[in-house]
Amino acid sequence: MCLHLSLEVHPAGVRNFPSQAIHPINQPTKEISMKKFSSLARAFAGIGLVAMHLTTPASAAASAAPPARPTVVLVHGAFAESASWNDVARDLRARSFPVVAAANPLRGVKSDADYVAAIVGSIQGPVVLVGHSYGGSVISAAAAGKPNVQALVFVAAFAPEVGESAVDLSGKFPGSTLGPTLAAPVVLPDGSKDLYILQDKFGKQFAADVKPALAQLMAVSQRPITEGALGEAAPAAAWKTVPSWFIYGDGDKNIPPAALAFMAERAKSRKTVVVKGASHVVMTSQPKLVSRLIVEAAQAAGTAEATKAQP
Predict the structure, then answer these.
(1) What is the DSSP string of the chain?
(2) Is residue 17 part of a domain?
(3) Cα–Cα distance measured from residue 283 to residue 310, given in angstroms and rounded to the nearest whole number
(4) Which residues pair with 182 in a beta bridge?
(5) What's the CATH code of the domain at 241?
(6) What confidence tens digit (pLDDT) does each residue in 187-235 have?
(7) Domain check: are 166 and 61 in the same one?
(8) Could you tell me if 115 and 153 lie in one domain?
(9) Rounded to the nearest 5°, which phi and psi values hold at 51?
(10) Shared-domain flag, residues 38 and 108
(11) For 173-194, what is each residue's pLDDT tens digit?
């Protein structure tokens, strides 16, 4: 606590009064006035000492204040959009974490990573990057060369090696049933193709553990990904140098759970949470578990940075 006192002392210890209020001052009155002035001076000096005493601990407390919480940047994947993070974001904000839910363009790994990297570069202070599904490929590339990224959290997400694609990793292990649920590609003017999941198959394929009414809205609002993005090779693999955490459901039908386990082990995951029965959108069906892991990652990474900074 800092106590700030503003004191004003007038000449001879008295205010300037209008001239008609001034009377001749005899010697006894003068002696009394001087005594009062001396008493006031001692009082002011005492107050100054108190102010100094109160100010010093405040400065010390400020220097020992804990570091600011990192900004959590949430990156959605294919067939989803930023609102898929709503409950996770709400929980993180309740814990006083700044949150940005990025609108992943879903056009290509390199271009999407550049977009997210620009967001990360605009944030002052530490960042925890969180990616879902294809968003994992994006955050792993976006974090390369960004010293303020303290942790990566993969939520039912790809963590590719340089040169690997989402298609490569999904086909590495059996279990994905995504292919037959895709609608006919939408051919764009530049010749590229946008992919959607058929709305009547979306719930069972993508969000089997989400309430049907919400799953239907998610199907309607899904954002497409280009076919090329899913087959694009990863340009970087930040999980090799940035501490990483993983969470996924064992009921995932988009990315085989065996592939997710393989990627978590390869990345030397600091902690891997497997949610029994959870679908591909574990952040929507189990937001508390996801936000809890993000908080753990932020705290662990922050502690490691603080230790590293000590002389």
Answers:
(1) ----------GGGS----GGG-----HHHHHHHHHHHHHHHHHHHHHHHHHHHHHHHHHHHHHTPPPPPPEEEEE--TT--GGGGHHHHHHHHHTT--EEEE----S-HHHHHHHHHHHHHHS-S-EEEEEETHHHHHHHHHTTT-TTEEEEEEES---PPTT--HHHHHHHSS----GGGBPPPEE-TTS-EEE-B-HHHHHHHH-TTS-HHHHHHHHHH---EEHHHHHPPPS--GGGTS-EEEEEETT-SSS-HHHHHHHHHHTT-S-EEEETT--S-HHHHSHHHHHHHHHHHHHHHHHHHHHHH--
(2) no
(3) 35
(4) 197
(5) 3.40.50.1820
(6) 999 999 999 999 999 999 999 999 999 999 999 999 999 999 999 999 9
(7) no
(8) yes
(9) -60, -40
(10) no
(11) 999 999 999 999 999 999 999 9
Q: What tokens appear for 158 in the block? A: 């790809």
Supply the range of the domain harboring residue 37. Answer: 1-8+28-65
d(CA 77, CA 218): 13
Q: Determine the angle formed by the axes of helices 86-94 and 287-309, rounding to 10 degrees.
A: 50
Q: Has residue 16 been placed in a domain?
A: no
Q: Give ∠ CA 104-282-240 in degrees, rounded to 5.
A: 65
Residue 55 shares a structural domain with residue 157: no
Q: What tokens appear for 61 in the block?
A: 């407390």
How many structural domains is the chain composed of?
2
Whole-prediction pTM value?
0.79
Rounded (5°) CA angle 168-171-172 = 85
